């Protein structure tokens, strides 16, 4: 049986998974169960196998995207995948998985932490604008311009009057990107308190993970419910059909990686990019190949 019962069926095809995970204001961020696996009924082994199958589809879709970008008559398109969520929700693992699927030439990855001195001297979207991908490429953002609302709000880095206006500024910015041919796909990862505690414990106790630990992780964890509201406000005020938000349960890392891959595949397939037609005569090209082969053989 195909992973998930029927990985190409009416519920678990890429468009179906995207529909299941699309943010719904009535349900809200807190209404999504972090341990759920919407659209997938298999186990972890099935999920990993399905990820591998989807990797080939994602790679092919990105290559078509790239092929069009190289043609004068091609469709100039690119895509930004925004990953947000609580600490230890799995953003880095998802990006590592996608890097293996797409390859280093097709995927550009950027992590946005505390702004550098140079970045802080500019408009808050300056550092994001610099990382908009070239035509034919996909950019994956580990955190993003939304930190200029979330982190600033939660850490009191600026008064409300400053970050309050950024919701509308971001919507305008994303609308401009999509109108210009850059799709913006946004994923908010949700993890349970129990699962987050386990992952943070690993960061503290395992030497190979200790570099990830920061005292701020624990301080932020104590404000769990405040962060829930902050995430909800971002979703409510910046969700749009042109740049949609998806809420992905991430207690099961394998599921989150599968789901984000399906969402990405859905948006790539929605571009409806076929392989560009050849701009040469195949018969003439084959004749030329045969002629050069004969010359090489003759020495």
Topology, pairings included?
Elements: H1 14-21, H2 44-70, E1 78-85, H3 91-102, E2 107-111, H4 117-120, H5 126-129, E3 138-142, H6 147-154, H7 160-164, H8 166-179, E4 182-190, H9 193-205, H10 215-221, H11 224-238, E5 245-249, H12 253-270, H13 282-298
Parallel strand pairs: 1-3, 1-4, 2-3, 4-5
Protein name: UDP-galactose-lipid carrier transferase
GO molecular function: phosphotransferase activity, phosphate group as acceptor
EC number: 2.-.-.-
What does this structure look like?
There is one protein chain. This protein has helices at residues 14-21, 44-70, 91-102, 117-120, 126-129, 147-154, 160-164, 166-179, 193-205, 215-221, 224-238, 253-270, 282-298; strands spanning 78-85, 107-111, 138-142, 182-190, 245-249. By secondary structure, the chain is α/β, with parallel strands linked by helices. The chain has one domain (14-298): P-loop containing nucleotide triphosphate hydrolases (Rossmann fold, 3-Layer(aba) Sandwich). Strands 2-3-1-4-5 form a five-stranded parallel sheet, sandwiched between helices. Helix 3 crosses helix 12 and helix 6 (147-154) packs antiparallel against helix 11 (224-238). Mean pLDDT is 94; it is low at 1-10.
């Amino acid at each position: 049986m195909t992973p998930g019962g029927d990985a190409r069926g009416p519920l678990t095809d890429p468009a179906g998974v995207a529909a299941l995970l699309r943010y719904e204001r009535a349900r809200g961020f807190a209404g999504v169960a972090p341990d759920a696996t919407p659209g997938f009924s298999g186990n972890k082994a099935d999920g990993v196998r399905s990820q591998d199958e989807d990797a080939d589809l994602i790679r092919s879709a990105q290559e078509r995207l790239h092929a069009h970008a190289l043609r004068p008559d091609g469709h100039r398109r690119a895509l930004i995948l925004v990953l947000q969520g609580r600490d230890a929700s799995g953003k880095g693992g998802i990006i590592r998985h996608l890097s293996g699927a797409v390859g280093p030439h097709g995927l550009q990855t950027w992590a946005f932490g505390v702004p550098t001195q140079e970045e802080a001297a500019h408009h808050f979207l300056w550092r994001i604008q610099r990382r908009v991908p070239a035509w034919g490429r996909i950019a994956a953002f580990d955190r993003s311009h939304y930190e200029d609302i979330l982190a600033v709000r939660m850490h009191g880095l600026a008064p409300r009057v400053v970050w309050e206006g950024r919701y509308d500024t971001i919507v305008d910015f994303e609308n401009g990107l999509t109108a210009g041919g850059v799709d913006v796909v946004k994923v908010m990862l949700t993890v349970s308190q129990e699962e987050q505690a386990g992952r943070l414990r690993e960061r503290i106790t395992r030497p190979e993970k200790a570099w990830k630990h920061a005292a701020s992780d624990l301080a932020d964890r104590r404000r769990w419910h405040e962060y829930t509201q902050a995430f909800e406000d971002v979703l409510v005020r910046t969700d749009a059909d042109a740049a949609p938000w998806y809420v992905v349960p991430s207690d099961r890392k394998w599921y989150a990686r599968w789901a984000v891959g399906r969402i990405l595949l859905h948006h790539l397939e929605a571009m409806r990019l076929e392989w560009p037609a050849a701009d040469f005569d195949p018969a003439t090209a084959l004749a030329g190949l045969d002629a050069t082969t004969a010359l090489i053989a003759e020495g």
